[in-house]
Specification:
Layout: E1 9-14, E2 21-28, E3 35-43, H1 46-59, H2 64-68, H3 72-77
Antiparallel strand pairs: 1-2, 2-3
C-alpha cells in the first residue's frame, strides 16, 4: 500500500456509483517489461482495499502483458 514515487506507470480508476477510487503505481523494468513493484492508494470500502492489495501482489514479477490479463474474477477468487 502506498505510492511509488519513481513509478514509470500509473493509473486511477473509480466508481461514481459508490465513490470508491484506486490509484495504482507500477515500477516496471524497461528491458524485460516485468513489474518490479506494484502499490496502490485506495479510497473506499474494505472490499476495494482488499481487492487492490491482492491485485498488486498477484502482478508482481509478471510481464505487463501477463499483468494486464489478470481478471477481476481471478482477484476475487484469491
Amino acid at each position: 500500500m502506498g505510492r511509488i514515487e519513481d513509478a514509470n506507470a500509473s493509473a486511477v480508476a473509480g466508481s461514481l456509483a459508490c465513490g470508491d477510487m484506486i490509484a495504482v503505481y507500477l515500477k516496471v523494468d524497461e528491458e524485460t517489461q516485468r513489474v518490479l513493484d506494484a502499490k496502490f492508494e485506495s479510497y473506499g470500502c474494505a472490499a476495494n482495499i482488499a481487492a487492490a492489495s491482492i491485485m498488486t501482489e498477484m502482478i508482481k514479477g509478471k510481464t505487463l502483458r501477463e499483468a494486464w490479463q489478470v481478471s477481476w474474477k481471478q482477484v476475487s477468487d484469491e
